[in-house]
Amino acid sequence: MIRILKSKLQDALKGLAKVVPPRASIPVLGHVRLKAADGNISIAGSNLEEWLTCEMDAETENSADWLLEFAKLKDFLKGDGKVFVGMEAAGDRAVKISFDAGGHMVERIFETLPIDDWPMIPVQPKDMKPVSAMMFENIRLALPSASKDNTRRILTGVFLEQESVVATDGKQIVKLFCDIPIQEPVMLPKTKVLGDGLLKLDGGMAVSKGEYSTVIHIASGPWLYSLKCMEGTYPNYRHIIPDAKLMKSWAEFPAAEAQALMKSLPVFEKGDSLDGIALYAGKQGVKFLSTKKDSSAMLDTSATSTGSKEHGIAIFDRKYLLKSFSLGLTRIGFDWGHSPLIATGNRGLMVWMPIRGMIPDEYFKRLGIEIKPEQEKKVMTTKTETPVTPQNNAAVKPEMPKAPMTAQTPKDSFKVVHGPGNGNGNGNGNGNGTNGTTDPFEDLQKAVTELRNQAKALTDGINGLQRKITDAQRAVKQREKDFRSTREILDKLKNASGF
Questions:
Q1: How far apart are CA 360 and CA 278, in angstroms?
Q2: What is the distance between the alpha carbons of residues 15 and 199, in angstroms, rounded to a whole number?
Q3: Which of 443, 421, 442 is nearest to 433 (CA)?
Q4: What top-level class would CATH report for the domain 132-217+225-231?
Q5: What is the C-alpha separation between 402 and 368, in angstroms, rounded?
Q6: In this predicted structure, which of 176-180, 283-287, 335-339 has the lowest mean pLDDT?
Q7: pTM over 0.70
Q8: Which of 114, 130, 357, 461 is most enclosed, with most CB atoms within 10 A?
Q9: Mean pLDDT (whole number) for 317-326
Q10: CA triple 337-356-400, angle to 5 deg
């Protein structure tokens, strides 16, 4: 006989629902494995990519090892969780489960499957390294910034390296700092277990490499979680993080102001392009301006402008700024209006691209600022930004883009050298990424143009050579025709003369 508090079983089954498939193509995957021995119960579920186990204390008179249908068990255990549940074998292939409901004993017989049908669970390594709850929290916070496009599979998960968790969808990059005890970086797919906050206590982790896959093992509170890692090569995101020392405009928002803006910015006047908003940082402080034509709407803030530029304006989709504030990244830097923006804070950093185009004089006129002609900078106009990443295939090493690209950039134009990078691009001016003051995205656009011109010249050369070959073939055929015609005339003359 096994006795356990019903609420413990309910919590365990709620967590296992994140792994057990609702409509399993393999019948055993719709079951959970319940093992009991020596005052402990473990309940495990799997979908062959994830394995999740919950361990709990219980009263166990004898050992047990059963496969119970998940949906039926979860449905039967609904209701008041303050009562105890009893479990005992009811023959070779059945289990009786009972509990008190309003003074009446409710019981049900569950048929079980043979234990041999249960899929093999990866063995958790004994040398699990300790990790803090911050790592699990950072994974949860970074996952929404990963790509939702399944054709770019590598970008749909998070990238774990020794000092940080990274996620990108090609338009934004989030890097959150924490210690991760791994020798080599790994990529984790987006799962409900990682994204829903089930793992929230300090624990341990380890990585094991098999013949066909790499598996990460995680322990947090009562949960043991094993997950197959994604295979492939993550793009070298460090090349996209701008050097903080080159950012000439900075806006530092107090925490209270950032919280207030998270409420006011979503309802501030919406512009004509995406969900754009203009950020001014300079001698007049830090302000937000509407991107709506002929609008004078303006939002003053208590933020401080700490950059070296007297007047700077950046125009971007406000959702990225709101996300940076939600991550506690409240120091925003940019270099004029065409550069990537970087948000920094104690937790990490975030980078995103502006809405690219010429900085209109109108924004400065609203502020009463006169900009000299030599101060104006024209940049490439792009109303939408469509990042480009090639198809990812675990069996083939993919070509990865060097940077998020605009809609005017052809797909699969560049390879990225995958390597260690040059720094971390932090908000204290010590980061590395692009060197010099040249915008990396403009360099990429120029490189694309050069490649196009070279490809066109090569195509023209090939076409010209093909034409020459065709002309030569025609000339040879014509000479052969003339030779045959001349020979026929000579034969006729010879026959006519009698020679």
A1: 11
A2: 10
A3: 421
A4: alpha beta
A5: 40
A6: 335-339
A7: yes
A8: 357
A9: 96
A10: 110
CATH ID of 2-117, from 3.40.50.80, 3.40.630.40, 3.10.150.10, 3.40.50.1240: 3.10.150.10
Q: Residue 470 — φ and ψ, nearest 5°?
A: -65, -45
Polymer length of the chain: 499
Parse the chain into domains and list their residue ranges: 2-117, 132-217+225-231, 238-437, 439-499
Number of other residues whose CB lies within 10 A of the CB of residue 495: 9
Q: Do the first three CATH levels of 2-117 and 238-437 match, i.e. the same topology?
A: yes
Six-digit token pair at 366? 């609203």
Closest CA to 242 of 384, 426, 445: 426
| Amino acid type, 302 | S
Overall fold of domain 238-437:
DNA Polymerase III; Chain A, domain 2 (3.10.150)
Q: Residue 254 above 50 pLDDT?
A: yes
Measured between alpha carbons, how far is 288 from 277 in angstroms, rounded to an integer? 7
**Residue (of 314, 332, 336, 333) closest to 324 by Cα position:** 332
On the CB side of 455, how many CA atoms lie within 13 Å of its CA? 7
Distance CA 481, CA 478 (A): 5
Nearest-angstrom CA–CA distance, 319 and 271: 13
